[in-house]
Design goal:
Number of helices: 10
Helix content: 40-55%
Strand order of the largest sheet: 1-12-2-3-4-5
Number of strands: 12
Low-confidence stretches: none
Distance between the termini: 50 Å
Radius of gyration: 24 Å
Structural class: alpha/beta
Order of helices and strands: HHHHEEHEHEHHEEEHEHEEEE
Largest sheet: 6 strands, mixed
Strand content: 15-25%
Length: 380
């Protein structure tokens, strides 16, 4: 549970930003006192519901926790767009009089406020539809040097960052599982951040994972969110569902007679929660056969890539970034991660970063669609 100081600080900042939005928009939208009071009441409730939505998971009654999270996260998504558009409106109000002095000032104030409010509503609805639809399949060919002919066309279905929790439940995950199985992949990789909650809260909703089907099985590595909800319990639960959990270790698969090494590491930040689970790509590849046709690493965060390249991997599959999920947060991802989305290369290592199969926080995706990835190994 966050400290009292942290809660007070967040409430103060949210309250100040909501008040500023109200001050800048409401008088311009209407001179009616009733309208201004209703708008002010909504902004006050929004500033309270956002932190309540974030903290609702600590409630013991799950149904209420889920409802409050839904309301709070929708409010957060709307507030994010409204704040951004209100800031953009301020720039317009500064620049337009300098460029077009004859433009009626009151009309500009009113119409710019209407555009800001309407735009926030539209972006929130568009983002909600994008977030809640079943993810599309993204096809990616990965060129591997000296790939054995037997491994040509080997397919991996990757899902990542589903975040089963208050707003993502069993039906959503079942639709993902059905779509993955329809790809008939050789291997399935689940690259972390599966859940936002405890096993007791979510075991019913992660059950569809047991239905995953692939020629060489399904594999899982921990993400940072597993460690927020007792990673050891989730590792045991995922294994119970039939997936192989790779924790700084590897397996050797034989496909049409050719060996393939599949390794997995714990989350990049795992040692902050359990020093014994420090992420280690070198340990994951230790004692692997030298004649492997390709070495593949599952690592939740793209920033494992430097160590993975040093260890001798050919391909790393990651997630974590959500591709930024929605503007402007995509601009901040590069401050923490070397890659935001898609296929990139670091020396001899290919890194594929999924935009995620679910979402975190606000049910909102803009210009960063969720995905189920079908990767195919091809000769370079």
């Amino acid at each position: 549970m966050p400290s009292r100081f942290a809660i007070i600080f967040v409430l103060s900042v949210l309250g100040a930003l909501h008040a500023w939005i109200g001050w800048r928009l409401l008088p311009a939208l209407s001179g009616n006192t009733g309208v201004i009071l209703l708008g002010s009441l909504y902004l006050l409730l929004s500033s309270l519901m956002i932190p309540i939505g974030l903290l609702a998971r600590f409630l013991k009654v799950q149904a209420w926790a889920d409802r409050l999270t839904w309301v709070g996260m929708l409010a957060m998504g709307f507030f994010s767009s409204l704040l951004l558009l209100t800031l953009a409106r301020e720039l317009v109000l500064l620049c337009v009089p300098l460029l077009w002095p004859a433009l009626a000032h009151q009309a500009l104030l009113t119409w710019s406020a209407v555009v800001a409010l309407g735009g926030a509503v539209g972006l929130t609805l568009w983002g909600l539809i994008n977030a809640r639809r079943v993810p599309a399949v993204v096809e990616v060919d990965v060129p591997i040097s000296n790939l054995p002919a037997a491994l040509q066309g080997f397919t991996i279905a990757q899902i990542s960052d589903i975040h089963v929790g208050p707003t993502i439940k069993q039906n959503y995950l079942r639709a993902i599982v059905d779509k993955v199985n329809a790809l008939h992949p050789d291997l399935i990789a689940v690259t972390g951040d599966l859940v936002d909650g405890t096993v007791a809260q979510l075991a019913e909703h992660t059950a569809p994972l047991a239905l995953l089907q692939a020629r060489h099985g399904s594999y899982f590595v921990t993400g940072n969110h597993e460690y927020y909800s007792n990673a050891d319990a989730w590792v045991a639960e995922v294994r119970r569902l039939g997936l192989t959990v790779l924790m700084n270790e590897h397996v050797v698969l034989h496909h049409r007679g050719a060996p393939l090494v599949l390794a997995g590491v714990t989350d990049y930040t795992a040692h902050h929660f359990d020093p014994a689970q420090r992420s280690d790509p070198h340990a994951a590849l230790a004692y692997a056969p030298a004649d492997s046709g390709v070495n593949i690493l599952l690592a939740h965060q793209p920033r494992s890539a430097e160590a993975a390249a040093e260890a001798g991997f050919d391909l790393q599959l990651s997630g974590h970034t959500h591709g930024g999920q929605f503007f402007p947060w995509n601009l901040f991802v590069p401050l923490q991660q070397p890659y935001v989305a898609g296929l990139n290369k670091l020396r001899n290592l290919w890194i594929y970063t999924s935009r995620g199969t679910g979402y975190w926080g606000p049910p909102k995706r803009l210009l960063a669609p969720s995905e189920i990835t079908r990767l195919r190994l091809v000769a370079a």
